[in-house]
Write a structure and sequence with these properties.
Layout lengths: L14 H4 L8 H7 L22 H33 L5 H9 L7 H13 L5 H12 L12 E5 L5 H6 L17 E6 L2 H4 L14 E6 L13 E7 L8 H11 E12 L5 H15 L12 H11 L2 E14 L2 H11 L16 H15 E5 L17 E17 L18 H8 L1
Length: 436
């Protein structure tokens, strides 16, 4: 359900009126942008340090709120589906009822299967980007030719288990078995307890291929594992909220075995530039000042240097760009909140919350600057001779997400190494002059 119908193509005419709405009349608008529970700023010296960019305590609370909202909505959908299945199910005879009571509990009845189907159809998921990133990241494991695969792996910032589901999607190509990449045991580590255990009661398709263990721990502190424990450390769309990234990479290298692989996907680059510009212009016009609402993100030029500084060899880096469309900017901000991707920068405004009129003005600016037109899928969509009916075209906005993928290896004698400096027997200048 779209929560903000006001944000249409002509919504700019309503923006000046919102500045004169009393606070009590604007409470229904404030609820659209408020969090599930009240968030508090960290007051410790480390969080207030100028060397940190994010408030880790607030980010943990935001992700807990996202997990709590997801679980609440899922329970609500299950209750609706149960009520619908109970009303539509025909009355059973005593003989049929006794037969159902005698069925093993592991065998679901027709009503249970229908309940699961209804719940699957109605449940709204905000995990679409994380699932896609995890799938693309895990697919890279099949490109690595390794006879034994990666039997023991660590998932840094696992969330609700996106990497585990992606690994269990297909069996391994290696002879040792396991999921994709030969992973047979996965340790899922995350600092948000609610997000980590959000889907613990939901069975994973193909879960017998790869066992998993959930561990609540902070990604920024020293890991609890001995040196040289894991064959693979993988991280999908979680390390962009880490302050001490060099020390985290050094810890990852420590827990990896020699010739171990570190594979990660990070939200970075020029992510959400449209939202950044819209909020900046709206806040400057409405409040006379600006504060960061998006990012900051790590650039692709810095990723290679971070890997080499941590001691990884043979770095490989590439970038993916996602274009996602939304009905309006309010829907985009709602999705970011339900993903747990709210702004958590230490440099944001601390005196008071951003006004509702600023958000509405940002939505109007977003639509005017970055609006697109999407053709609705319909049988009346038009042909080459007959153009599409203009009434079937819906205005929407587009958001850009840059994902940086990187692979690094811990040093090993079997890896190719460059020749020592000064060991060349000829100069490039000689070859260039000879070919002229």
């Amino acid at each position: 359900m779209r929560p903000l119908i006001l944000l249409s193509r002509r919504c700019c005419q309503f923006v000046p009126l919102l500045r004169r709405i009393p606070q009590k009349d604007g409470q229904q608008w404030t609820a659209l942008f408020s969090s599930t529970t009240k968030l508090s700023m960290s007051t410790d010296d480390d969080a207030q340090s100028a060397t940190n960019a994010f408030d880790r305590n607030m980010k943990r609370q935001q992700r807990d709120n996202a997990a709590r909202a997801h679980e609440k909505w899922r329970n609500h959908v299950y209750n609706l589906a149960a009520a619908a299945a109970q009303n539509e199910a025909p009355s059973e005879s005593k003989q049929q009822q006794q037969q159902h009571d005698q069925e093993p509990q592991s065998t679901p009845s027709a009503t249970t299967r229908r309940l699961q189907l209804l719940a699957k159809q109605k449940l709204v998921s905000y995990d679409y980007i994380r699932k896609e990133i995890a799938t693309r990241l895990v697919d890279r494991l099949d490109d690595i030719q390794r006879a034994e695969g990666f039997p023991l792996a660590l998932d840094m910032g696992s969330g609700s288990g996106y990497i585990h589901r992606a690994i269990c999607a297909e069996p391994a190509l290696q002879e040792g078995g396991g999921g994709i990449g030969g992973v047979r045991k996965l340790v899922q580590l995350d600092s948000s307890k609610l997000m980590l255990h959000r889907d613990a009661d939901i069975p994973v398709k193909g879960g017998d291929l790869c066992d998993s263990y959930r561990l609540e721990a902070d990604e920024e502190v020293k890991l609890l594992f001995p040196s040289g424990t894991f064959d693979l450390v993988i991280s999908s769309a979680s390390l962009h909220w880490v302050n001490k990234l060099p020390s985290v990479l050094a810890e990852i290298k420590r827990v990896l075995k020699p010739d171990g692989c570190f594979m990660w996907a990070m939200i970075g680059g020029t992510t959400l530039p449209e939202l950044r510009v819209a909020l900046l212009m709206a806040e400057l016009e409405r409040e006379g000042g600006v504060s960061p609402h998006v990012g900051p993100f790590v650039g692709i030029a810095d990723v290679g240097g971070l890997l080499q500084r941590a001691g990884f060899t043979l770095p490989t880096i590439d970038v993916d760009t996602f274009k996602v469309s939304f009905p309006n900017a309010a829907i985009l901000m709602e999705h970011l909140q339900r993903m747990g991707e709210n702004a958590a920068g230490l440099q944001r405004k601390k005196t008071r919350r951003t006004g509702v009129d600023t958000f509405v003005a940002a939505a109007c600016i977003y639509e005017q600057l970055y609006g697109i037109t999407i053709e609705n899928h319909s049988n009346d969509g038009g042909t080459q001779d007959q153009p599409t009916n203009p009434s079937l075209l819906s205005p929407e906005i587009e958001a850009t997400v840059n994902v940086i993928y990187a692979i690094g290896w811990t040093p090993h004698e079997s890896q190719p190494k460059p020749l020592e400096r000064g060991s060349a027997t000829s100069r490039i200048q000689d070859h260039v002059s000879k070919n002229r």
